[in-house]
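Aim 2, interim progress. The first record below pairs a target sequence with its structure tokens.
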Amino acid sequence: MYILKIILAIIFLPITLIVVLVRTASFKPKDNAKVIETEEVFDKEKTISNLQQLIRCKTVSNRDPKLEDEKEFKKLIDLLPSLYPNVFKVCSFDKLPDRGLLFKWKGKNSDKPSVMMAHYDVVPVNEENWEKPPFDAVIEDGVLWGRGSLDTKVTFNGVLSSADHLIAQGFVPENDIYFAFSGGEEVMGNGAVHIVEYFKKNNITPNLVVDEGGAVVENMFPGVKVPCGLIGIAEKGMSDVLFTVKSNGGHASAPTPHSPVVEISDACLKLEKKPFKSHLTQPVAEMFDTLGRRSTFAYRMIFSNLWLFDGLLDTLCKKKGGELNALMRTTVAFTMLSGSKATNVIPPEATMIANVRINPADSKQIMLDYFNKTVDNKNVDISIIQGMEPSRVSLTDCDSYEKVASAVASTWKGCVVSPYLMVQCSDSRHYGSICDKVYRFSAMDLTSEERKTIHGNNERIRLETATKAVEFYIRLMRTC
């Protein structure tokens, strides 16, 4: 199909050239989100001190509950009244199953409630690989070190510090605001599920939900040099897929062809060579339409004429991989492989696990069908260990999105705000059943190096970044 389009474009070259150039010339930047120039003044030292105390709680979640220290989770929860006293004076507070925490800040109305989310559990650490102790919350050269400093105790602290500050000023929101936190997000726990069930049971329909997701980043979109504030309006699905091949085993001295390891490897190579079809979904199309207009001439030509250059873009994505490719298609990452337990034994069973991130245009069933068709080997059993479908796509042509976008643009002045597709998973996916205005934005500006420390060694945050998170939530809550 793409080859046919190119042939037709060459045949009608003069007309094609005129169309392409006119569309490129008219592909000019849209107005950015509204910027509020007022300055927000609050206690930044207390903001940092509170975050330090949260980090010192070793709230490490694990798929095996026996490896979790429940005392550390209780320690964090018990600290909250002293860290955020005004919140506890004014807001109701409920503990829900699976470490769900829910605060309600009563507003003047209850018609259009907002929900601010975060999770307070963190992933495990290899302490010997850290330059600073991961739970000591050391501050050095304007940087706070610690597990959870980015993911996501900074937003947990940002939400509660903002509310505490505004309550002290006597501010009352126009509508109810809920603070919804979970202590098991990193292990796909049910804390957020119980909170959503609470909303359903009490007929509460959020008008706005904000959770972790995008951030203010640089050099992530081709040809765009200014910082970009990315707001996720949807997230990809996720599945862990198990590939299994069985045999009678045997001694390695007399091997027969097509051992389990060979057949598993062949399946891996087939899927590596034939990636999923690309899809220009709504979140990505809106991102291209926003950021593509601010790119260099060559990229503006591509993004304004995808009717002609979609094949070229697809080829670039497949060759380069990385974030742009992940936005365009379902991706497959082979992460685990096992065979024989002895060097001289043909394995009676070989297994391989792939972590799959499902494009919103696909589904778990489409993924499974594609795997079976591409591998085309009845000896390879393919099954889903666990997984979730892609999320609902949220609205952008509404007041709720504009509120978030304005808070981003006002806090990080000079950035261009854009919708995007989140390629990771978050607790916010559960809210799709009750809300079509769920936005994923981690209230931080991050360098590529800082992003790499999330779930990695030496996670850390600049103090300025931590206080900016509070400024963002203050601005957002004022509009709720």
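The second target in this work package is listed in the same format:
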Amino acid sequence: MKTVKDYIRTIEDFPKEGIKFRDVTTLFSDPQGLRLTIDQMTQPFAGQKIDKVIGIEARGFILAGAIAHQLSAGFAPIRKKGKLPGPTISQGYTLEYGEAIVEIHRDAIEAGERMLLVDDLLATGGTVAASISLVERLGGDIVACSFIVDLPDLGGRKLLETMGMTLNVLCTFND
């Protein structure tokens, strides 16, 4: 039987030489792979009170909507700056080659709501840490962060663990 990792394609030298890009679109395009992923990302939280699943732009949206449905929870997006139409709060963070900003609607979360934060891949953890900050600033309680792929050599797992986050990861690529 195939595992989630078996559905993920590795593209050498993308987006630049020396990088191994872990492409989850092959996972998403396969009905069994997508079902397996959603089931495995949902199962640890079944029976827990999750008010909203937060999806980080863009592949996190695909996952978070399906997981929210399975958990009978709401969905809220975290997007790149300037993409949300209503009043937002913003959080900047550092990228490997610069800076970026993510935003969430001010009314996306009510204080005390229990959140599951979802994205496809954990690398350096910068986007996720900024997203955690946004949720916490609105008074949300993050139950866990859930990812398909962890790239532990890039330090994201360590960063999130030092922030006290519980992590759910389906597979790891060490190189």
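The helical segments are 25-29, 31-42, 59-71, 126-137, 156-162. This observation will shape the mutagenesis plan for the next reporting period.
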